[in-house]
Design goal:
Layout: H1 4-7, H2 12-21, H3 28-40, H4 42-59, E1 61-62, E2 69-70, E3 84-91, H5 94-103, E4 108-112, H6 130-139, E5 144-147, H7 153-169, E6 175-178, H8 194-202
Parallel strand pairs: 3-4, 3-5, 5-6
Antiparallel strand pairs: 1-2
Helix pairs in contact: 2-3, 3-4
This protein binds zinc ion.
């Protein structure tokens, strides 16, 4: 049985299992299976993984403008001349930025919060780089700010906070928008939760 005590006995495999078990969505059982897989398939999986981890550790930086991960700082989105620098999309996480990029529909730039406001977890506006975002809006000519935080309580609280703060700045030429919420493509009304259905009703449009 793996436990904290056995972690201290300098067993290389147990150290590996311990490291893996600290990754999101992995418990000790999954971590053991992955460790065994890596050991059995050293050439095909373990060595490339080591190489990729080292490469990421050595080369990936956080963009000082938008807080995206990239080999370059500023990142390739912030320095791309084909992107519209006057539109900023605020997302919670780099994973959300990746999702937006996969859609291929958005040609503006981003601000990655890296979390949401949370009194319990001690996450403040400073942790989310909101001061930097406000400075960017003040210093650059930003036409539109898209609040694309998740449709969770904390995500929406964070969006409200940013909106309220911007109202105080009285930037009359700045349009603040939010992503529409409602029925997913292929979704059936009967399967929707009440909140989603209510949001879809509220966001209904003329056809
Ligand atoms: Zn960037």
């Amino acid at each position: 049985m793996f436990n904290q005590q056995s972690n201290n006995n300098n067993n290389a495999i147990e150290q590996l299992v311990y490291s893996l078990s600290r990754l999101p969505s992995l418990g000790t059982r999954s971590a053991r299976r992955i460790a065994l897989h890596l050991l059995r398939r050293r050439e095909a999986t373990l060595l490339p993984l080591i190489s990729n981890l080292q490469n990421v550790a050595d080369n990936i930086k956080i963009c000082q403008i938008c807080r995206n991960f990239d080999v370059n700082d500023p990142c390739n989105i912030c320095t791309n001349h084909n992107r519209d620098k006057s539109i900023i999309c605020v997302v919670e996480d780099v994973a959300d930025l990746w999702a937006m990029e996969r859609s291929g529909l958005y040609k503006g730039v981003y601000h990655v919060l890296g979390g949401v406001l949370s009194a319990i977890d001690g996450i403040t506006p400073e942790h989310l780089g909101i001061d930097k975002l406000l400075k960017r809006i003040n210093d650059c000519h930003i036409r539109e700010l898209i609040l694309a935080t998740n449709a969770t309580v904390d995500g929406q609280t964070t969006a409200h906070y940013i909106n309220d703060t911007l109202q105080l700045l009285n930037k009359t030429d700045l349009k603040i928008t939010k992503l529409a919420q409602g029925i997913p493509i292929g979704g059936e009304l009967d399967y929707l939760d009440d909140g989603t259905l209510a949001a879809a009703m509220k966001a209904r449009y003329a056809v």
